[in-house]
Amino acid sequence: MGHVIGIDLGTTYSCVAGLEAGRPVVIPNLEGLPTTPSVVSFTAAGERLIGTLAMRQAVTNPANTFYAVKRLIGQKFRSPQVQEALGRLPYGLMEAPNGDVAVALGDKTLSPPEVSSMVLAYLKECAEAYYGEPVTEAIITVPAHFNDAQRQATKDAATIAGLTVQRVINEPTAASLAFGLGAKKNGLVAVYDLGGGTFDITILEISDGVFNVLATNGDSYLGGEDFDNRIVEWLVESYRAETGADLAADTLALQRVKEAAEKAKRELSFTSETEINLPFISSDRSVSKHIRKTLSRLAFEAMTADLVERTVPRIEQALADAKVAADRIDSVILIGGQTRMPLVKERVTKFFGRDPEEKVDPDQSVAMGAAIQSGVLDGQVRDLVLLLDVTPFALGIETENDGYETVIERNTTVPVRKVKAFTTVEHNQRRVRLHVLQGEGFLASMNKSLAVFELVGIEPAPAGVPQIDVAFEITADGTAQVSAKDKETGLEQRIEVRPSTGLSAAEVEELRKRQSGRERAKPGAHA
Ligand code: AMP
């Protein structure tokens, strides 16, 4: 088999790694850099740009430059998260015919997996340039708190990019593999992952090469971008107070403010004060206006302390689910670029009563861990025996009157399979409908709908006579599967599946063909 790559598909940056002599190595992108902005841009001439080149388009071509698409993947257009993003993103969002969110490109739309596939195809190309041969297999990471739809959509993105996904693993778990392999340490580990768009906390136990995740918790809608937005809001508000003009109504100006805010935020991780300088940010009645503001670390911390605090109950819940007290944790690992913020480090240190590990690279350890997992699967890495991860959400079914019955509890080790017996309630009933959901809400409507599974072609019989065993499974990738068997005959029961979100298999295949056709047509082009 050829090289298998590990990919960390981040909200803001992505990274790809491979294994060399059983050790993970980060593969540089075509510009020689270890990480690539997860940005795709389409120029007026129809050219597709990925990474740094695409990011440079953000100010001049904001409507066609797509960033932070990971926050949209696997989402419905009408979800509160997408509705909130609508007002903030400089590019357009639309509702796809199946209710999913799509991004607008001129008079066309692109699904989030399609956009992400372009970043993945670029990373694949970087790996091919590095190895000098085709690469088709990958391990891909996702936030531990991604639900089934988000995981499935990420897998679809990889398939469209021409990659076969050997395994989907959780980002914090991947980071712990990189840490555990390097440190060869046994004990309880907490991985605190605050990236560009998501927060995860994972508690795991490392014991002689067995990585056993005990519990995971998090917030898919809390990340570095929220910190940037606080600075943006402050700048927009103070500009309005000083000049009466609304920068938020000017896409170009807003994009410049956003970039300056992110830069200021990064600087404040290393200095106690920074200056934000935006000349000619707007002109009003031919009078040009500028932004010149000083922001201190203290003021920035006051603006964002509540965001950092929002992570604390999640850590407490993860520890409670793992049945571990904070002072029993042996090592704390910080990953995700936002953990470079001193306030984040201080809060985590205070919570656990110990300093985080120094030797973990917050940007590269996830991709490196994914590469290690490829070596675990094919036997190249022998120090690690087993990786046991958990499902972040309960899996259950809808019952009468919007009721919800849990079938698999959250934080159950995966893969897991639970069988439940079903029967009919009416004479000669030919179909049984199962609405499968994910979440902890006590009403069905409070949870994330995955799909409606309909057991069809049941032989006519009196009510209660047919006995159908339905198996609910969560795979090692964290995705859900449902299958059914007639108890009497042992025959596979036919099921019609209507997924609530996502592309169909035919759509994925069509997009994959289009993508590979494009690669063949443009051998030198990015993706
Ligand atoms: P990731 O998803 O891990 O690539 O994390 C990216 C996030 O980390 C973005 O929101 C960045 O703005 C943020 N970030 C990167 N470097 C720093 C830094 N030095 N201080 C604060 N945040 C940072």
Instruction: Let me know the number of strands.
Output: 28
Average predicted local confidence, pLDDT: 92
Radius of gyration: 24 Å
What's the CATH topology name of the largest domain?
Answer: Nucleotidyltransferase, domain 5
Q: Between the first and last Cα atoms, what is the distance in angstroms?
A: 23 Å
Number of domains: 3
What is the CATH level 1 assignment of the largest domain?
Answer: Alpha Beta
CATH architecture of the largest domain: 2-Layer Sandwich
Number of helices: 12
The CATH homologous superfamily of the largest domain is called: ATPase, nucleotide binding domain
Helix content: 25-40%
Structure characterization notes:
There is one protein chain. The chain is α+β, with helices and mostly antiparallel strands and 527 residues long. The protein folds into 3 domains: 4-221 and 328-390 and 508-521, ATPase, nucleotide binding domain (Nucleotidyltransferase, domain 5), CATH 3.30.420; 224-304, ATPase, substrate binding domain, subdomain 4 (Actin, Chain A, domain 4), CATH 3.90.640; 395-496, Substrate Binding Domain Of DNAk, Chain A, domain 1 (Sandwich), CATH 2.60.34. The protein contains 12 helices and 28 strands. It has helices at residues 52-55, 80-86, 112-131, 148-160, 171-183, 224-243, 251-267, 297-309, 312-322, 342-352, 365-378, 505-521, and strands at 4-9, 13-20, 23-26, 35-37, 40-42, 48-50, 65-66, 93-95, 101-105, 108-110, 137-142, 164-170, 187-194, 199-207, 210-219, 273-284, 287-296, 331-335, 386-390, 395-399, 403-408, 413-414, 416-422, 432-438, 448-455, 468-474, 480-486, 495-499. The strands form 7 sheets. Strands 1, 2, 3, 4, 11 and 12 form a 6-stranded mixed beta sheet that branches. α5 (171-183) packs across α11, α6 (224-243) packs across α7 and α6 crosses α8. Adenosine monophosphate (AMP) binds at residues 10-13, 195-196, 224-225, 262, 265-266, 269, 336-338, 340-341, 363.
